[in-house]
Design a protein that fits this description.
The structure holds 2 protein chains of 2 kinds.
Chain A lengths: L6 H14 L2 H19 L5 E8 L2 E8 L1 H21 L5 H19 L3 H20 L4 H32 L12 H13 L7 H6 L7 H5 L2 H13 L5 H19 L3 H22 L2 H32 L15 H15 L5 H15 L3 H27 L13 H19 L2 H4 L13 H20 L9 E3 L4 H44 L1 E2 L5 E2 L9 H21 L1
Antiparallel strand pairs in A: 1-2, 4-5
Helix pairs in contact in A: 1-2, 1-4, 2-3, 3-4, 3-10, 3-13, 3-17, 4-5, 4-10, 5-6, 6-7, 7-10, 10-12, 10-13, 11-12, 11-16, 12-13, 12-15, 12-16, 13-14, 13-15, 13-17, 14-16, 14-17, 15-16, 15-17, 16-19
Chain B lengths: L12 H24 L14 H24 E3 L10
The chains are: A mainly alpha, B mainly alpha.
């Protein structure tokens, strides 16, 4: 028996209550449910504490461990911050869906077996789709459908892998594995789809920017980071992840540089940041796993902060594109300052949370003598500053004067932003607060002169590069083709082409078949006979009466041939 | 609205000139700091004077140029997918 409620259940119940309550009571539920969940999360002891039986499989609904608690904590904290940010602006059903979505993420965090993991995984897919749809525009509806298809497909692939593991090993425990069998590959691919790994990363940049200003704050946190946790639990040290992670890192930077939509820039930078974590999980050392977990924790906070800042701009101006805004620092100073703090944190500036976590991953790469990985990650750090650290605040809050004079963020949005901005700096100034809760003991000092000077130079000169290269980064009102072009355009065109070809073929064959039929019918009647219109039987060739002499002649010919062949063989 | 004397402090040309000078100073100091504190690189080369600066600058240059070239092939009009987008 357990003496605490399952954390996911509390938040799920909270989501239900949001729909049933009104006014102040609903506000209370929105703010209290994540805090209660947080309290429950810290009651979860190490090891399995809630299990049951399904068919003949042991279901371990709650399994505690430091890394699981760490992720559940940040998910609950995120639900709280998001709820605070959204409760006055978002529709009640968006809040309810977002909380159920967060409950799914917390459920995955504590899932001790693959069946539980899968159930909560699908819960997330369902309710995150609802959050995307809450964008309310036709574009959001279409993107939501594409989002749902991708995640349901990912779920099916994950399920194939899980069932394979069940059949072949008999165990459904969540335990470390390598991508060495078909089953494990299926599980890995299913998880990587949620991590927005190539080539299916487009669902993220497609769907997130189309959700509501409040919805994108929730969306930025849960799906990809649950996938990171799943990778930490299931595939630590899987070498293929290093390459995938590095690709994601570079992909995020390049696409963000090309992008014009404010929130899509941030969406691409999620892929970039998750790439750092995936790469670290691939390295797999204790330092690397610590780095991945810490970076996920810090990332959720500063990425949510960036989306909050962008969301406040979209909410106040109704504009989504960099080319439509600019100079907003004049009337939205708080939003600008919070956005800049988030931008500095994501860039890993010293004294922000990004610095104390991202450098752990670089340290892990250096410890393992992965020279290329180390330098690519360093290059990527410079690139992060370029695409998110400066580009986002510059184009939104400075750049030119767009003439827009919107009011600053509403008070609840402002409080949520200040809270998260505070956390960004807190974990940058006092990283021990976070290090104490990492999966492995931490013997790492981020603030050495070498590291600080190296990163300061790297980032400051990236900033110089940004301002010198500004003419090359002129915003264009365009989108960039991604892998999803393959199924949104190529596959559609192929299907149309095949359809047209088959239709043409059908027409040609149809007319020819008719002609063939007529001819065959005529020949048939000629040989087999038919009934004339007056009902008189007309004999065909086969029904003709042959003279007996003809038959005798043919028999003689056959016999001669037989005798002839008999003698020559 | 063109940035003039009556505009916000941050948008005035004089402020922007000042910020450039401050920025340049910070850049120089960040490199000169290496004379005071020795930067121990992991792989030798990253301990050189101004390595972080040069590496950061060149990487950004490379990434921006690469993105620019890729943009010629990948950029499309916003209504490319012919969707009922952008309310």
């Amino acid at each position: 028996m357990i003496d605490f409620l399952p954390p996911a259940l509390i938040l799920l119940f909270g989501a239900l209550l949001i729909g049933l309550t009104r006014g102040t009571l609903r506000t209370f539920v929105v703010l209290a449910a994540p805090l209660l969940t947080l309290a429950a999360i810290w009651q979860v002891p190490d090891g399995i504490s809630l299990s049951t039986q399904f068919l003949q499989y042991p279901i371990e609904l709650i399994e505690g461990s430091p890394v699981r608690r760490l992720f559940a904590t940040i998910f609950a904290l995120m639900a709280f911050g998001g709820g605070l940010y959204a409760f006055r602006q978002a529709k009640w059903y968006e809040l309810a869906a977002a909380y159920a979505y967060a409950a799914g993420a917390i459920g995955v965090s504590f899932a001790g077996d693959l069946i539980t993991l899968f159930l909560f995984w699908e819960l997330m897919a369902l309710f995150s789709t609802v959050v995307v749809w809450c964008g309310g525009t036709p574009g959001a509806r279409a993107a939501g459908i594409r989002y749902a298809i991708m995640h349901l497909l990912g779920g099916v692939i994950l399920k194939v892998g899980i069932e394979g593991v069940m059949v072949h090993t008999g165990s459904i425990e969540v335990r470390p594995m390598l991508a060495d069998t078909f089953d494990h590959w299926m599980i890995l691919i299913g998880i990587l789809i949620n991590a927005a790994a190539p080539p299916v990363s487009a669902w993220l940049s497609d769907a997130y920017p189309r959700s509501s200003p409040t919805g994108s704050v929730f969306l930025s946190a849960f799906t990809t980071k649950t996938a990171v946790l799943a990778l930490i639990l299931l595939f630590p040290g899987e070498p293929v992840l290093i390459g995938i992670g590095l690709f994601m890192v570079m992909y995020g930077i390049i696409y963000a540089l090309l992008e014009n939509d404010i929130r899509r820039i941030l969406a691409f930078s999620i892929v970039n940041q998750v790439g750092f974590m995936v790469c670290a999980i691939g390295i797999g050392s204790q330092m690397a796993i610590n780095g991945a977990a810490a970076h996920a924790f810090a990332h959720i906070i500063y990425k949510a902060l960036l989306f909050m800042s962008a969301g406040a701009v979209v909410y106040r101006t109704g504009k989504n594109r960099c080319s439509d805004v600019g100079g907003l620092f004049r009337t939205m100073p708080l939003t600008a300052v919070c956005g800049i703090i988030g931008a500095l944190a994501i860039s890993g500036f010293p004294l922000t949370s990004g610095f104390t976590t991202k450098t752990m991953i670089s340290q892990a790469a250096a410890d393992q003598s992965l020279v290329w990985v180390y330098f690519l990650l360093a290059a990527a750090s410079a690139g992060v500053f370029l695409h998110a650290g400066i580009k986002f605040p510059w184009f939104v809050f400075f750049q030119r004067d767009s003439g827009l004079r919107p009011k600053d963020a509403p008070w609840n949005m402002a409080v949520a932003m200040v809270f998260f901005a505070f956390l960004c700096i807190l974990f940058g100034v006092a990283p021990q607060l976070l290090y104490a809760y990492l999966p492995y003991p931490v013997e790492y000092e981020p603030y050495t002169a070498s590291k600080v000077i190296f990163y300061l130079q790297l980032l400051l000169f990236s900033g110089l590069a940004f301002f010198l290269l500004l003419p090359l980064m002129k915003r264009t009102e365009t989108i960039s083709l991604d892998w999803d072009w393959l199924w949104r355009v190529f596959l559609l065109r192929s299907a149309r082409w095949v359809h047209a070809a088959l239709t043409g073929l059908g027409l040609v064959l149809g007319s020819n078949l008719a002609r063939l039929g007529t001819r065959l019918g005529k020949r048939g009647r000629h040989y087999f006979g038919s009934r004339s219109e007056s009902g008189r039987q007309v004999h065909g060739v086969f029904a003709r009466a042959w003279p007996i002499g003809t038959t005798a002649l043919w028999i003689a010919v056959l016999l001669t041939a037989y005798v002839f062949f008999y003698y020559i063989t | 609205m063109s940035p003039g004397k009556d505009d916000a402090w941050l948008a005035r040309p004089s402020t922007i000139r000042l910020l450039w000078w401050v920025f340049a100073l910070v850049l120089v100091v960040s490199v000169l700091l290496q004379f005071v504190f020795k930067v121990k690189g992991y792989f030798g080369v990253d301990g050189w004077l101004g390595f972080g600066a040069a590496f950061g600058f060149l990487c950004c240059l490379a990434m921006v140029l690469f993105a620019k070239v890729l943009g010629w092939f990948l950029k499309r009009n916003e209504d490319y997918y012919q969707e009922p987008d952008r309310d």
